[in-house]
Specification:
CATH class: Alpha Beta
Number of domains: 1
CATH architecture: Roll
Largest sheet: 5 strands, antiparallel
CATH topology: Nuclear Transport Factor 2, Chain: A
Number of strands: 5
Strand content: 25-35%
Order of helices and strands: HEHHHHEEEEH
């Protein structure tokens, strides 16, 4: 019975990873060619509280999910826990279905190693942000 449970867990873990592939080489550089500038604009706007610049690269669903009042509240919460954004380093670039996921390790005033995940989707001729997450021990408190 114990071995069956372990086997089922392994199968579930493998299935959860299906459809995700790492992006490397020239394709990775092409992704970072649009992802890094968009992520930098988002993070600079987070620092200075400029909503219009924050949502510049968002798709319509992200803009609807992040109206200005939600941006202000979310920004205040994050600032209170980890402070201003200082720098970032790419930690992973992958694709799952139509989404490209770029993960960064970010350094903030009061915490280093904050995971910043920015999800892109091609809409028309643009690669737009369809998801954005900040994750760290202090943010989970």
């Amino acid at each position: 019975m114990k071995h069956q449970v372990v086997a089922v867990l392994i199968i579930l873990l493998l299935a959860a990873g299906c459809g995700k592939r790492s992006i490397t080489g020239a394709e990775r550089e092409a992704v970072l060619g649009y992802a890094n500038p968009a992520s930098d604009r988002i993070l600079a706007a987070y620092n200075d509280g400029t909503y219009a610049r924050y949502v510049t690269d968002f798709d319509a669903q992200m803009k609807n999910a992040m109206p200005e009042n939600v941006f202000v509240q979310t920004r205040e919460l994050i600032m209170s826990k980890i402070g201003k954004y200082l720098s970032r380093e790419v930690s992973d670039v992958s694709q799952k279905d139509q989404f490209v996921v770029v993960k960064y390790k970010g350094k903030f005033e009061r915490e280093d190693g904050v995971e910043i995940k920015v999800v892109f989707q091609k809409i028309g001729d643009r690669d737009l942000v369809s998801g954005l997450w900040f994750n760290s021990p202090k943010l989970r408190q």
